[in-house]
Amino acid sequence: MSETGLKASELSPQQLAEACAAAMWSTDHASQNLGMKIEQVSPGHAVLSMELTQIMANGHGNCHGGYLFTLGDSAFAFACNTYNQLTVAQHCSVTYLRPGRIGDRLTATAKEVTRQGRSGIYDISITNQSGELIAEFRGHSRTVKGTHLPE
User: Which of 23, 27, 67, 99 is spaced 20 to 30 A from 12 at the CA atom?
Assistant: First the structure.
């Protein structure tokens, strides 16, 4: 059952996306411990944000690329898990365009490009608080057995 007490089949697409995100968030300790916030979720789409803190600094004094990747990967995960199907990353690539600076508030926006059968492709952009593009990310997903909510 969802937080509304309804089965997945009784929810609108938007309600289903939100219920799947809530179910995932309840056990996503990695994203929570990094200070991420879910800003928005809808079918095939998710927006997450995160403030870059001092513990994320690399040897150059910028945000370590692994944290940028994790933010993009988390947005990707929430976007591709909006249909009550368990979906995992199959392949991901990231291009770093400019450094994230400690103190920046970054936003990762994940958008579904295509979803057919068990495969999906998602484009994710990571921007800073000024709207500057920090990184581009593309994720390929694979649906596996199981659901987030009872049917």
Answer: 27
